[in-house]
Amino acid sequence: MSEPKRVGRRTFLNYAIAVVATGVIVGAATYFAVPKGEVTITAPGTTVTTTKTVTTTVTGTPTTTPPTTLDYYYDPSLKGTTITFLAANVPETPYTQQMATLFESETGIKVNFIVEPEDVAASKASIAFASKSPDYDIVHGPGFGSFAFAWFYSGYVEDLEPYIRKTPSTWNKNDILPAILNNVSTTKGEIYCLPYGTVDYPYFYRTDLIDKPAKTIDEMISNAKKVFKPPTMYGWTSGGTPDVFSFFTWDMFLWACGGRWFDPETFHPELNTPESYESLRLLIEASKYAPSFTTTDAAGAAMFVAQGTVAQATDFSTWYPSTMIGPDSKVIGKMGYAPHPGVVSEPHMLACITNSISKFSKKKDAAWSFLSFLSSPRICQMIFEAGYPGTIRKSTLDNPKSKQVNPYAVEVLSWLADAKPAGSKAPKVASPILPIMPRAPDFVSIVVKNMAEALAGKIGYKEALDKAQEQATALMKEIGIYK
Amino acid sequence: MAKSSKKSNIILIIPTLIYLNIMTFFPIAYLVYLSFLKWNLFEHKGTFVGLQNFIQLLSPGSLFYQSLSITLLFAISATFSEFLFGLGVALLLNRENIIAKIIRGILIVPLMMAPVLIDMIWKYLYNPVLGPLTYFANMMGIMQPNFLDSEPNVFFSLIAVDIWQYGPFMVLIILSGLLSLPKEQFEAAAIDGANSFTQFRYIILPLLKPILSIAILFRFVDSMKVFNKIYILTAGGPGRATETLSYHIFYYSLGFTYDVGYGAAVSILFLIVVLFMTLVFMRAFMKDMFVKGRVQ
Question: In Å, how far from its chain's centre is CA A272?
Fold first, then answer.
């Protein structure tokens, strides 16, 4: 048997150099070929285009110095600062990133983004706060103020009211929609976060299959039953996974029935009221006409609609562009929208990612400079015109240009105008997407897990809510807020 | 010379010991410490509560038992299914021809793919509206196959994914064992008139026992830790039907509520269960592999 051939040192070195050189060339080519910092912002109904420069997509004229009439907090001494923004991977983030480029050109403050899935971002933020880390200056909070409130209650994020007081009056706090400002403020007037938009949870329906939009949930279920023909056509869809998505969907049913999670004064849960029972009963009934309800999240529901396999849906209004008029939608021209069907009240949802400043940040002023910039009248208008279907400002909604650019968003947001808090049994109600209380995720988890068992048919809806009520009451007492 | 050699040996392993301490012992010690705290991450620091977390977990009606039983059911079913699959396919591939060689190569593909990618692919395969598996089910007259949102379908669906992903691992391990078996014993058995089944039962199985034991043990421990599939495919649903211990720990300590003390306590108990089951298995099936501290 012949001896194996030995590789000489020179040959080995030659091969090694060749491999390393190939790796460097391929890596460099990949690095320079792949565009970085690219953000696509389109208005609804337009073809999706991708650009590299800010100036061609954002309306308004970017400048290299702040505008003459300053409508956000600006301090020249902050030039050269870099702040870190822990952002969730949500529809708002690309707009935020693009605005950061404009902000840097005006102020010289750089914004470094760390983008993670929503639950990961919340998790990272909570861990950083618990360890008093200054890693993040601004954090996204899911649930329209819910996490932000919990963080504020724990002393993790700043009260923004003092920062607002030192911001030019042109920033105009009174221009912010009351429904929004009330929901991000404590009873003492502390403001614990700031969104730059809000979205609703409307009802979408196929105009070729359903004559007119359902006004009540019973009508919606009746429509669903008529068109239900699996696997080609399902009657309704919405987020139903045993996490926040089923909670959001149930929120709307609960508020429609005139119910609420708990008394905001006493924190007594109200999960076993007749209204609450009725809401879950209706949800279970509706879920029978959905394609795999318990494994569908909000994105999945939007996908089913866009594929033309569902006749009705209730989902975030941000999905409108992709499902109704986006280039991949199979139902262009066949979809209509209306407020979410009600029972006692017409329900609306305040849903958005909020921005908070970390109490452990060493660059709070720079952080506020960016937040005030993002929520300033000029930038809110710019973001709205660029296609984000949400705003916090009355001036944006009243602007005739807004109606031209995005009549859908203006109409949806106008539904919030005279909405009262959920549980008030007013004709129109609107509340934040998640409870505003300390340890809100625990409350949501209690409801979601019990609801999931009812949706799976393991227990009845009354039993599920009775169990949730008991566990939620214990939670409120444990936190120390039960009065 | 011997003394200096021993000294240099000790010095050389110090970096490894430091690494092990930082990456293994310290995290475990910290986990044990956390398990004695009541600490929600919305609070700056936890409160020492002694064994309260463990008492809560081990009390009747605790969700720990439900998650443990689901985990054991999945692990045993998946491991047993993969064992049968692996053994069957390995016996079929235990021949020297070009087709067997090609199939052996193709079998490695699932092992090289990122687990998350595999789970995402299967999520789309199981999609109730657009998935190809739904399409084929419809062709067979099953209009709503409900792969992932009804029991017991969800279990079979998850096991199918696990077999697709890790069955090849079993195949390769068993096949390597088969290929290393001495041919003389088979020749002698054939001469004595033993048929295939007899050879399998009295020659292959006993000789393969060490390899089979190791393969089954690996897969069992791995299956007990299942997380990706649950997170991506079912989120613990429908209801809590697929809420395995790993998912339970994630959900309650970092994924949704932030009760790290509770999560740490569940992790400790989980570790104890897995260790116990591993020891039981090794005593039952691998005892004769170890003689006087040496592996035979």
Answer: 28
- Written as tens digits, the pLDDT of chain A (483 aa) is 455 566 678 887 887 888 888 888 877 776 766 554 444 433 333 333 333 333 333 444 444 456 667 899 999 999 999 999 999 888 788 999 999 999 999 999 999 999 998 888 888 998 899 899 999 999 998 777 788 888 998 899 999 999 999 999 999 999 998 878 877 887 788 889 988 778 889 999 999 999 999 999 999 999 999 999 988 899 999 999 888 889 999 999 999 999 999 998 899 999 999 999 999 999 999 999 999 899 888 878 888 988 899 999 998 887 776 666 677 788 888 989 999 999 999 999 888 778 999 999 999 999 999 999 999 999 999 988 888 878 889 999 899 999 998 888 888 888 887 888 888 889 999 888 888 888 888 999 999 999 999 999 999 999 999 999 999 999 999 989 999
Residue B278's CATH number: 1.10.3720.10
Q: Measured between CA atoms, how close is A31 to chain B, in angstroms?
A: 23
Tell me whether B143 touches chain A (CB under 8 Å). Answer: yes
CA distance B129 to chain A (A): 6
C-beta atoms of A127 and B129 within 8 A: no
Which residues, 6+ apart, have CB-to-CB distance to A435 below 8 Å?
Answer: A146, A261, A262, A443, A444
CA distance A133 to A476: 28
Which positions 154-183 of A are in contact with B (Cβ < 8 Å)?
154-156
Q: Searching chain A, which residue's CA lies closest to the CA of residue B142? A: A231
Total residues found in chain A within this entry: 483
State whether residue B41 sits within 8 Å of chain A by CB.
yes
Q: Which of A315, A359, A391, A376 is nearest to A153 (CA)?
A: A359
Please state, as a whole number, how many other Cβ atoms lie within 10 Å of the Cβ of residue B251. 23
pTM (predicted TM-score): 0.80
Domain that holds residue B214: 40-292
Contact A126 B235 (CB under 8 A): no
Question: How many domains, chain B?
Answer: 1
> Chain B contacts of A310, Cβ < 8 Å?
129
Tell me which chain A residues have a C-beta less than 8 angstroms from the C-beta of B238.
242, 294-295, 452, 455-456
